[in-house]
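Hi both,

Apologies for the delay on this - the queue was longer than expected. I finally got the fe (ii) ion-bound model through. Below you'll find the protein sequence and the ligand SMILES exactly as submitted, and right after that the structure tokens for the full complex including the ligand.
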Amino acid sequence: MSNAATADNTDQTPITGPGEEPMVMPERRDLHFLPPKERINDWHKLGPHMTQFMNALSLFFPAGERLFIDAVREYRDQIPDPDLKKAATAFIGQEAMHSREHIEYNQLMAEAGLPAEKLDAFVWSLLDFLKDYTPGFMPLSATIALEHFTALMGGFVLDHPEVMQGSQEDYQRMWEWHALEEVEHKAVCFDVWEKCVGRGPGAYARRTVGMVAATAIFWPLVVAFYLRMARASEECRQEGWRGHLTVLKTLFGKPGILRRQIPEWLAYFQYSFHPWQQNNSHHLQKLEQLAEEAEAAYSTHH
Ligand SMILES: [Fe+2]
Ligand SMILES: [Fe+2]
């Protein structure tokens, strides 16, 4: 039975499977956030630069999540395990909801005069280029690598709520929702890879190639996007260069969003790696309450 599967997980309680790894069935949640546009340049409690760092990450989601969805769809008919097939469908549904919400969020950036449309278009054309000029296994290989990043980032935000607490609450809630669902579905694409591409040395080589490529392309682009966004933001100009130090400290010092992910990033290169070996499924108990809060907040605002 697949690690992504469980027959009954309606109460959000993680169920431990054969290998002590939880078996989690993700669920598509049709939630709306629409955070306030007047805070788009300064919603993070650590100030305008940290805001633009998170905004820059958001710019990767519409095109990135489209890549993930298409990559999994390519293999969906070949998935032998019905539970995994169900999980793949739920994964596609979750990413489609994330994408929809991030498109609206990114639109707020464009309306505020930030270069969101240009940067978003760049990601679309880069991913189209990669799809056209790399071997056929690359979209799913890149997807499982990037899903490892989103699961690590999401897991970090959940392990260290102080990173987001005190920020504007609609932005905070939206990122927390995304973080939770990234953890919830973190093994789905990986399981699809193992069932459809395989677990042998060839499949291992191809998934490590995907991780090396994803790391080499994604993180330099995040830095470039962040710098471009910070340059365009009046609030960042007012905050001055110290804002960059705040971001550096948060990523590499304390709490060290990226620094602390290095061991878990390296774990991906183990031959027997599986995403649920890093078992943080206890966070998923928060999903139900968060969904209720999001629905209540959205209905009061609209
Ligand atoms: Fe997502
Ligand atoms: Fe994801």
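Main takeaway for now: Residues 95, 147, 150, 182, 185 surround fe (ii) ion (ligand 2) (CB under 6 Å).

I'll put the files on the shared drive as well.

H.
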